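ok here's the first one, seq then struct tokens
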Amino acid sequence: IRQRRDENVNVALMHAGLVPGTPVTPSLAFSVDLLAFYYHLRRRQPSVGVQGFVKSACAVQSFPYVHTLEALFSNAFDVYCDVRRRVQRRVDVALKRDASNWRMKYGCPACGYKLAGETRLVPDRMHAVDGCDSQKRDKAAGTCDERAFESRLFLSRDFVNRFHGEVRSHAAARQSSQASQARVRAVEAEDGFALPEDQEDDRCGSNWKAANTKELPPASKEAFEQTGVFACLCRHGIVEFLIEFVQCGERAKHALAAVSTILEEFGEDQALGYDINCVLETTVRNSSLGNKASELRLQHVVDAFHCWAHKRACQLKYHPLYRPGFGLEDLSTCERFFSSLNGTARNIRHASNYRWHQAIDLHVDQLNDDRYASLGVYPTL
């Protein structure tokens, strides 16, 4: 490799189409073509790990395999992914798509773009939300890796934690200011979801695990940092944003953070599909989002896949089949998404926080590209 006097060794290697495995005095480098192949393979088949891929590459090139190659290849792959993200950010700036919420609002053109004079639909957009606990990460893994992954997909932890104990605190404030007014009281469950009190409840909150989530066992809290993800997708299957579970299960704060984001970013006449929306509607009403959700006419719907297991009265109120404007939409989009995202689980259990986010971001970005390409195909899978 030719290197000029004032040229960094890593720059010289990149000019030759190679990415080093170590930043200082590298002795081994990987070709950009090899890294590009693994990049596209990992995006489409996230269960393919580094070890198997490196062993196969060594076998093809008759190169002796040693276990240290895995760490070197992982480092080079991180550099390659970072370069691609930096290039994409420059492209986004040139196209004026660099706003933090651009992909959320316009990533699906079928949902986001409106023609001049187009009749406004009700609901204006449909969103599906749900949680999945397969994406766990060992708390003790990758503690030396202090890098922070920048992703437009994930909502910040601070924003989500603002809704912790939201129903309880907001109900207490309303009781102190409206003590003389008769109203329906709400009881907060352990996970933060609100259930109506002093009236007959014909809804199904008590029948669903997500609405009765207990705290994680102490052993799980000690073992895991991230314990899953909460996803919001449009009706066409394009991911709008994700929320990470941090040492907890699916809680009301995740759903409330999703509702807050939907109301803030998308405005009036939004429809929200969730497996326990019969409970979430009461939770939203008894939170600080209640007035805003009512003013913006947020519609709560239980997706068709789960709704058939709800009580009859609940089905008549929340099933999309009986709601005008929903057509044949089932809003069971999250289940199809999680069936693919679960492929990341085996490779992120013992990853660092940076690589946990990177692996999910890579696969979700590819899924969004695939859904974008299939928008003209009916039905969209």
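and now the second one, same deal
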Amino acid sequence: MDSWPWDNASRLGHGCLEFKNNVFGPESLEFDNEGRGPYAGLADGSIARWMGQSLGWETFAVVTPNWSEKACSRGVDSTTHKQWKSELKCGRPLGLRFDQKTGDLYIADAYHGLLVVGPNGGMNHFFILLEGEATGRLLRYDIPTKTTHVVLEGLSFPNGVQLSKDQSFLLLTETTNCRIMRYVLEGSKRGTLELVLNLPGFPDNIRINDKGQFWVAIDCCRTSVQEVFVNNPWIRNLYFRLPIPMRYLARMAGMRMYTMIVLLNENGKIVDSLEDKKGEVMKLVSEVKEFKGKLWIGTVANNYIATLPYPL
């Protein structure tokens, strides 16, 4: 990745930590059509909404009727191993998107599939799709017919997906392969999948801004060993079958990760790249939402939201 535009100034490190120890594992962030928010999908299975300084955070919705504060909420321990046994019961919302016309909130949950809740939140939601297979696929759900279709198969951990502003294509991140792919929806190349960009690290979610540009959250960076694994899956499979404890195998193959976020234009060209090489602000980034001159940055494993004025 010699040609990558590295951020030697580590500008992402100038951000601020907000709501520290008030939100737990805010993987995905969203704002509604009235500008309220952020809404955050949390590690305890709830979707919380920020109501301002006087009211603070409220539970806006949950993904399952099994959810209760007593059974599911563990405060700062929600992002530790203590929560793992409860995830199947309580849920783990990993993606949030508002329908800006209807005000409905669509929720992608790791255990309960794709759901939708009305503008008033609560438990008045219904299941759209329950997808439990561990296969890399891109699925399309048609709202009028309430039917689900398989668009692509054989993907490697497709972790984030985002339609373009004109809806002529979508971008998706393949975490395992450290790359961004484009799937064409209209025109002479309709139905084709093409490589947009190879990345120096492991991408998570991808979000569009008002200009039609794309923010990609990346845990950086790949080591030379990881490069071999990405390009030779059979070697990776053999390596992790060695009779050595997993923590040692991972340590030998990996390195200390840090946060990078990248802004792409609609052609897949890099517009900006921001890093926090010392991990001063953000670790294990999951998503970037640009809203009213500020970047809101989520994390799957920490108990805060990072913000940064943008453009800098």
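notes on #2: DSSP finds five helices and 22 strands in the chain. The first strand starts at residue 16 and ends at 18.
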